[in-house]
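Protocol step 6 of 9: fold each sequence in the batch and record its structure tokens directly after the sequence line. For illustration, a two-sequence batch is reproduced in full.

Sequence one:
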Amino acid sequence: MAASKEHPLSGIWKPSPLRAMHYGSDTVTNHLLSSLPSDTSKAFIITGSSLATKTPLISQIESLLGSKHHAGTFANIQQHAPIDLLDQAADAATKDPSTDTLISVGGGSPIDSAKAISYRYHEKQSKYLHHITIPTTLSAAECTAIAGYTDNTGTKVGVFHPELMPNVILYDYAFAMDTPQKLWLSTGIRALDHAVESMYHPKASEAPTKQLCLSAITQLFEYLPKSKKEPGNPDYITRLQLAAFSSLYGLGLNIGGGLGLSHSLGYALGSPYGIPHGITSCLTLASVVRLQAEKGENTQQIARILPYIGQARTGDERKDAVRVGDAIDGLLKELGLSTTLNGQNVGEDQIPKIARLATKTEGGDLYDSVVSLLRSKL
């Protein structure tokens, strides 16, 4: 796929095969059953233990499905979707041959696990499972056709196919009410990471990708602080869910490889060190934006963000891009999410390994810049 161009403005957008996205009050109650592919469908739920044992949400879904539609529940998906648990979930989900639907409930790990299960099912049965997702965080894993999981070496692995895009997304604010505030806010920064890095992704189209990302950035800067002050406000929750959707869905099938350096660093820090991806974005995004500005890379696209976060542009794209990084740091401080590598139990001795994983090089300008960036985060 050809890269998008600014001068002259040209590009292509390839939409993903998402069929429907519902949002608002009682979305799950009103739309879950109608989102099944047929009246005889059997659905298997993929989720984590906290949602299953500490909230009534999974029981609510099971009751809605009833014996007619509920094929079973796997409630032990863990952070970064480790392969051994993914294998257990896949075996359980496909045990009943009548199962044709997966319902993922939670953040990125259950959603990605459901995609990976569908991918494996296709390898054996030559067809993909219908996927309904009910997100409870702002990670936006529901917005891509990529399934990420952690292999036995602790390395994050990704598989891609257009049919891995969930068929239906149900944003229901009631399902986010029990999400711990730090997880909710930090995954909001992950969504901000998606939106910012999509702005300079070489295959990102001007419309709708970048227009959606700019809207998402505005909404995230406005409503994350409001949500911190009023965590149970349903309007703030819903607006943030839609901002997360806008942060990543717009890339569609244009996405290829990683989004950018902040995401590459996130993968190098995430599963190897047990750091949630929301927190990795808190560690890396602002510094990566400033690094890009200082090197004169992607400054035009980063500088475009400034008026969308309430600041006037000066005409100096490099300085404006730096100010975007500073504004992200300011948002992190306002949300109480500023952190360090030492604060995440990652010492200086790990920096060369992280830089190698993130850059896939042993040296050179990019490697050296990443090492300096990581040292600044100790």
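Sequence two, same batch, same settings:
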Amino acid sequence: VKKIARYEGASSLWRGLSPTLVMSIPATVIYFVGYDYLKDVLSEKLNPIHKTPSSLATTHPLLNGTFVYEYRETLAPLLAGGFARTVAATVISPLELFRTRMQSVHTDTKGNAGLFRGVAQGIVAMVRSEGVLSLWRGLTPTLWRDVPFSAIYWVGYENIKKTITTWDKNKHTKPVLNEFEIAFTSGAISGMIAATLTTPFDVAKTRRQVDMMQPVHTKIMSLMRAIAREEGYRGLWRGLTARVAKIAPSCAIMISSYEIGKKALS
């Protein structure tokens, strides 16, 4: 960070902010609204608690005693989180490619405006030579990273939140933690765990999007094996500290703000 600021100016630390802000709005709306809706639907489908015995018999004749029934509280956020992220990542993939390219090159004497034009021209040339589908270059490794991340994150968040809430109620006569604090803590812890487990996929995704010479059809597992072969298995966790340092507070702020906002608007 110090080296970038020294040689390229402090403003270069915010390189790619504009496309990040543009893509964050639709991505966040699709992701959170989609997750909440799908989780409610799946919870209703999998959870027979609020149904009458006759309704349960006709609606869930095969669920009782099965894996799906026993782990319904885990499966709902896992499936909802994974699917919602798949849709959101697909929609904003071209903007993600543009942002990654902007952040990966050095500024020149033309400044940020020249950088923006240079990256845009490079992407236009790529589309002309490789087709429109090249805008989704890196989508597969993005899904490899983001879908497991979201599944792990939401399962962790819901369970950690439930554990903290139960502990607070049992430990104190009057709960001392408010909803914001519980959501913030749960989001940070779950974000750290999910970020750590999915870092190899993030390394592969970034490597593929940055490398102009990387074939579009390169498979994620082949790319990860190549990284491990050339740099060792540590190479798959390159940037782990920075990734966790970014994602943990980001997840904490986003989910706590969303929970409070949703409660205020409901």
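Proceed to step 7 once all outputs are recorded. Observation for sequence two: Residues 72-104 form the longest helix (33 residues).
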